[in-house]
Amino acid sequence: MSSQLLRASECNGLARATRAHPAVIKRTFITPTTSRQADLVQNMYLSALKDFKPTPIKPGDAEGHVLKFSAPKPPKSPEEANLAGDLKAYESMEVEVEGQASAGEASGKVEDWFEEEVEEEHKTH
User: What confidence score (pLDDT) does residue 47 get?
Assistant: First the structure.
């Protein structure tokens, strides 16, 4: 029985505490301050953009920064070259064939650059 009275007194104490300090519930609207700051910065930026006037470009501004264009010299055409003399020089050249001796030289033995190692045969028992 004493436990029931104790529980009842705890419930009454809880009820008294809530009555003594009633929770005040108010509905408040939170206004975000960051959006106001963003609008302020955005308005300042847009006003600075509207007030900006670039300096006009003059034709002489590029002087000293850009080289004057000069067309390259046209290449020499083949007709102007000495084609006949070049053709005669080519025809009079001596033909060189690899492995054959040219005039005045003795034909030497052609070296074999690939040398195989001789394998020793091992006798098996």
Answer: 94
| Residue 40 and residue 33 in contact, taking contact as beta carbons nearer than 8 Å | no
Q: Which residues contact 102 (CB under 8 A, 6 or more apart)?
A: 94, 96
Cβ distance 102 to 94 under 8 Å? Answer: yes
* pTM tops 0.85, yes or no: no
Note whether 71 and 82 are within 8 A (CB): no
pLDDT in tens, 6-26: 565 555 555 555 566 666 777
DSSP notation for the chain: -HHHHHHHHHHHHHHHHHHHSPPP----PPPPHHHHHHHHHHHHHHHHHHH--PPPPPGGGGBTTBPPP-PPPPPPPGGGS-HHHHHHHHHHSPP--TTSPPTTSPPPPPP----PPPPPPPPP-
* Cα–Cα dist 100/109, whole Å: 10
